[in-house]
Amino acid sequence: MSNLAFSYQDTLIEAGCDEAGRGCLAGPVFAAAVILDPKMDLSELNDSKKLSAKKREELREIIEEGAVAWAVAQLSPAEIDKHNILQASFLAMHRALDQLTITPELLLIDGNRFRPYKEIPHHCMIKGDGRFLSIAAASILAKTHRDEYMLQQAEKYPEYGWSSNKGYPTKAHRAAIAQFGATPLHRKSFRLLPEAEQKKLSFED
User: Fold this and answer.
1) Which of 2, 105, 125, 129 has the highest CB neighbour count under 10 A?
2) What whole-number distance in Å separates Cα of residue 22 and Cα of residue 201?
3) Binding site residues for a divalent metal cation, as ranges?
4) 130-150 burial, b for 16+ CB within 10 Å, e for fewer?
5) Could you read off the pLDDT of 2-20 as tens digits, one per residue?
6) Which segments of 49-161 does DSSP mark as H helices, in order?
7) What parts of the sequence cross the membrane (predicted)?
8) Exposed, middle or buried by CB within 10 Å (0-12, 13-18, 19+), for 180?
9) What topology is assigned to 14-154 in CATH?
10) How far is Cα 102 from Cα 13, in angstroms, rounded to an integer?
11) Which residues carry a binding-site annotation?
């Protein structure tokens, strides 16, 4: 049985929200919003970072089939550069909430900050993906959908190792940027390389 709490309270419809990809050098930031059904078997649900890729995929299927409502959204690298990554994460959550087929009455947000969404009250939960099932479910959907996207892009840009690093700042990823330059999926506002080298980068269109 999971040791995560099902809900923060018992009267309002709750949606858990989380994002994936904030710390990446390349690719969109993804976010998910999930309203869970209490009848679901969530015994194996946990923070996505503590689960294997295989287990995340299994749980994604359970969540998508059994949740009362769920949605996943993204903001592109260009939008991240325009808004900054923190605001882009909030906007991605807003886009996911926009797509829910049921309007939640309370939002549980992973992290310590959020931009209010419409008139719906929210609670920010530090390490919420390890505390509440709905946030853990959102973390799994955001992570698996983003990983799937980056695996597709890895076929187009095989030099950067996205099939394994998913766009995160590994040593090999930075070395590939230094050797092959930046792609349209790289975030121009991020420190991709040391400053002197980054100034010389050209970004493909």
Assistant:
1) 129
2) 22
3) 18-19, 110
4) bbbbbbbbbbbbbbbbbbebb
5) 789 999 999 999 999 999 9
6) 53-66, 77-83, 85-99, 133-156
7) none
8) exposed
9) Nucleotidyltransferase; domain 5 (3.30.420)
10) 9
11) 18-19, 110
